[in-house]
Design a protein that fits this description.
Layout lengths: L1 E3 L7 H10 L3 E2 L7 H10 L6 H15 L4 E5 L7 H14 L5 E5 L6 H12 L4 H28 L6 H17 L3 H16 L10 E7 L1 H5 L7 H7 L2 E5 L3 H9 L7 H11 L11 H13 L4 E7 L3 H17 L3 E6 L5 H23 L1
Parallel strand pairs: 1-2, 1-3, 3-4, 5-6, 5-7, 7-8
Helix pairs in contact: 1-6, 2-3, 3-4, 6-7, 6-8, 7-8, 12-13, 13-14
């Protein structure tokens, strides 16, 4: 069995560790490029959202490299993510590829179905081996999230932010190569130390911007045109509202390990504006924006794929929050036609607006 799965930010690092520890051959799709996007766009429905198209491109490239089994997440509720697996399966079958697709639906009350899927993949594998693999994968997931948080909190202060980005990428490689959980943690500590040694701007106070939106677009740098890196180089401290480990907790482990207090706070904050589930992370985009306003952030950037229903609902609510809470919000919709130049121009204009607003408050 030669397993593959789609890219989503740094997800490949812990996912590869998990499946290799379980004894599977893992064939990663090549890093996402324009070729990946072009393949997905060519073979996907025109009005499908960008994440689906990117997934299709990933799968085609991985199947061409010899993969025969695709691991895919499922979904519940009105978000189209719940249909991804079946749609992608039909697209790939029509193209003549032979493979098996195993779709893991969120447990959320259907743990028996989830258990059957796990057993179909793992057979009679011992629980001890499964736990060992999970522990390693989970350690790497936490490590890459910690690296993401570290670089976002460090980059705006650096005289040479590109040097910080280079060290961050070296950290990802160290985590990927580490086979021992203690070494994984030591690798992140090492990178944190190296980042702390870089030269910093004196008496610098960065703008603080919260990042909310649909999880794939928020996590995948190719899709969001490296927005966190661009903002950091503009001197902006970015706080991302969702991380890979959040998705894993939500999707794979019921609510047992989630930050239930924060989750309640998000929903309570959203309630005056959006008080029912609309799929995806629509409520979270609304609630997190309210929380960012309470925490004194200078602005919020909302990322969404073109045609994403949950985030379109959130987008319609955000102007009201922006006005009532006095926090600027920029919604950026992305698809295969989104260009870097226009994207950067909008970001720079938004940051200029935040800087002027902050100067007015100080005066």
């Amino acid at each position: 069995m030669k397993i593959t799965f789609p890219h989503m930010g740094t997800m490949a690092i812990p996912a590869k560790a998990l499946f290799e520890e379980l004894g599977f051959d893992v064939i990663l799709p090549p890093p996402i490029t324009k070729k990946t996007l072009d393949l997905g766009v060519k073979h996907s429905p025109e009005f499908a959202c960008l994440p689906l198209k990117m997934n299709v491109g990933n799968y085609i490239e991985a199947l061409e490299l010899g993969a025969d089994t695709i691991i895919m997440g499922g979904g519940v509720g009105p978000c189209r993510f719940g249909y991804y697996g079946e749609v992608q399966k039909e697209i790939l079958r029509d193209l003549g590829y032979e493979f098996e697709m195993i779709i893991f639906e969120p447990m959320q009350g259907r743990w028996k179905d989830f258990y059957k899927k796990v057993r179909s993949l793992l057979g009679k594998m011992s629980l001890l081996k499964l736990k060992s693999a999970w522990d390693k994968g989970w350690a790497k997931a936490k490590a890459v999230d910690r690296l993401d948080s570290l670089i976002n909190k460090t980059r705006p202060y650096l005289i040479d932010p590109k040097k910080g980005t280079q060290i961050y990428k070296e950290g990802l490689s160290l985590v990927d190569e580490s086979n021992d959980i203690k070494n994984i943690e030591k690798s992140v500590d090492l990178i944190e130390g190296r980042l702390n040694c870089l030269k910093r701007k004196k008496n610098f106070k960065p703008l603080k911007v919260g990042l909310v939106g649909e999880i794939y677009v928020v996590l995948e740098p190719f899709t969001n045109l490296n927005i966190e890196e661009k903002l950091g180089e503009l001197g902006v401290l970015v706080d991302r509202s969702i991380f890979l480990t959040d998705w894993i907790k939500e999707h794979m482990a019921l609510n047992l390990f989630r930050d239930l207090k924060h989750n309640r706070n998000v929903r309570e904050a959203a309630k005056p504006y959006l008080n029912h589930f609309v799929g995806g992370h629509g409520i979270e985009s609304v609630g997190e924006t309210v929380l960012y306003s309470r925490e004194g952030y200078d602005g919020v950037i909302h990322l969404l794929p073109f045609t994403c229903m949950p985030e379109i609902i959130a987008q319609s609510v955000l102007p009201t929050i922006s006005k009532e809470k006095d926090i600027p919000v920029l919604s950026l919709s992305v698809d295969e036609h989104t260009g870097d130049a226009g994207f950067v121009t909008r970001l720079e204009a938004f940051i200029d607006l935040l800087a002027r607003k902050k100067e007015e408050v100080v005066v």
